[in-house]
Amino acid sequence: MHPAFQSLIVNRAAIAVAAAGAIQKINHKGLKGQLRELVVRELLEPLLPPGCVIGSGEVVSAYGGTSNQIDVVVADRRVLPPVLIRDAGIFPLEACLLIAVEK
Asked: Could you give the CA distance from residue 97 to residue 54 in angstroms, rounded to a whole number?
């Protein structure tokens, strides 16, 4: 990996880790979740190829199944586009590349 590219990624990761530490001091679960989503978005979005989207919401299957709330979803809209309002919505399972939920 080119040193300049590696340095940019390492710096982004360090900023995300520092922000995640600060978020831990917040008591409101909803606000904490939204801020976590923002940190992940800021870290990953610039590194994703065109056509990928980051959001939160539910993942649905072609057979009618629906997930619980997913905190962070990375999906490829070229496979199947999600139905989004801003960054939240419904993501087809077939297009999901990554999902993350709070333990």
From this structure: 10
Phi-psi group of 86: left, alpha or beta (phi > 0 → left; psi -120 to 50 → alpha; rest → beta): left
**Could you state, in order of their start, the residue ranges of all structural domains in the chain?**
1-47, 49-103
Q: Which two tokens stand for residue 61?
A: 């299957």
- Per-residue pLDDT reduced to its tens digit, 38-53: 888 888 888 899 999 9
Q: How far apart (Å, rounded) are the C-alpha atoms in residues 12 and 62?
A: 36
Distance, C-alpha 20 to centroid of its chain: 14
Residues 32, 54, 71, 5: is their CA dihedral positive or negative?
negative
Asked if pLDDT for residue 76 goes beyond 80, the answer is yes
DSSP state of 94: G
